Amino acid sequence: MIIDLPEGKDPIGYVWGEMVPGIGIAASAFSLSVYEHSTLGLREFEAARLRIAQINGCVFCLDWRTERDGVKVEAEFADAVTEWKTTELFDDRTRLAAEYAERYATDHHNLDDEFWARMFAHYTQAEVVELSMSIGSWLAFGRLNHVLGLDTVCVLPGH
Predict the structure, then answer these.
(1) Is the dihedral of CA 139, 145, 151, 157 positive or negative?
(2) How many angstroms separate the CA atoms of 151 and 37, rounded?
(3) Beta partners for residue 71, in sequence order
(4) For residue range 43-69, what is the model confidence (pLDDT) as tens digits?
């Protein structure tokens, strides 16, 4: 961790809540809302989230598995996300979520009409906006935690 931490302070609580409370508390609320209010299916949600975690290299995000109603994706899902182009474990929505996450993070200037036609064949406009906001949250905050060295001590608020 590159931030000096006062003795006895929780790293995430200190950096996100105390150091910059006007920004960190709002960022934390946004980060948590992606999990609390998502209408996306668990598989497409996790495909996009894990692809961003893989790109960011966030240790916590790579280990985390979102749970909904006691259900998590299967153990081999993370490996399938790495191989999103060829895996047989994904349906079209899940594959597109992983592709969108990757392109959003690494090639957003080249999201062309062909890509959007495929997206809108499987996702509503509201779902694309939700997925975009979720990916943006994971990209920004996973990368922030990794850059500051917080990703080895990170926990989601409320978990």
Answers:
(1) negative
(2) 23
(3) 68
(4) 999 999 999 999 999 888 888 899 899
